[in-house]
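WARN retry 2 of 3 for item q-0093 after timeout on previous attempt; input resubmitted unchanged.
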Amino acid sequence: MERILAQLPDLEPGWVWLTGAGPGEAGLLTLLAVKGLSQADVVVYDALVDRSILDLAKPGAKLEYAGKRGGKPSVKQPDISLRLVQLAREGKRVLRLKGGDPFVFGRGGEEAMSLVEANVPFRIVPGISAGIGGLAYAGIPVTHRDCNSAVAFVTGHDATGEVPDSVDWASLAKGAPVIVIYMALKHIALIADRLRAGGRDKSEPVAVISKATTREQSVLETTLGACADAVAKSGIEPPAMVVVGQVVRLRAALDWLGAIEGRALQADPLGTRHHEQTGS
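OK item q-0093 returned
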């Protein structure tokens, strides 16, 4: 491992690495993220970065919280970008650690543009997005050839905190067999209504994955018509991903975490294997 890490780029003084921490589980970090943590003088981290990941920072590294959570007091985005520039100009090795992937609904592009304007050198270190890794830990693939050959990723709120009007929800409902929605719990009733108005059936499977890949992960399986009430009654909390589509049914076969805990898995939840094997 040390030989592999030694061959990777170093985090140099005066540089900023915009780094994805993945959906939560420390084992899902990239090697480059691990190396950045081992070298950074300052780690500027988001609210969704798990403590087990921060524990990988080198001894003596300064940990600066820059979390942004909907409905709660948060550091303003321009102040975060300014702080990154300031630290880099002080000659610090700066690791900006963001949940998931910095370029997937993570404002990494905004922060990178600020670094460009300030002439601060930077590197982008991608991470596993919660929309893929979080679903995988719930036993839900984003694609499956018996269900879908396309998937759409969308945010459940815009910069104002409201459901984004820039999304054509009717076209999304018609064009994407699987829809993965980030930050959707607050507006799940309105989003479900818009998808149903666009033609999605109320009985379509829906899963809500809370605190994905962590020890506190929980999964709520419901339907598009019942999801708002189900979320309210369950008490499930953010951060959470919502996935709409027939791939949710595959969890009956692919809930590998449940299987580890003794849950029985269903071999063919879609009823397609027999037809595939017989050619009928």
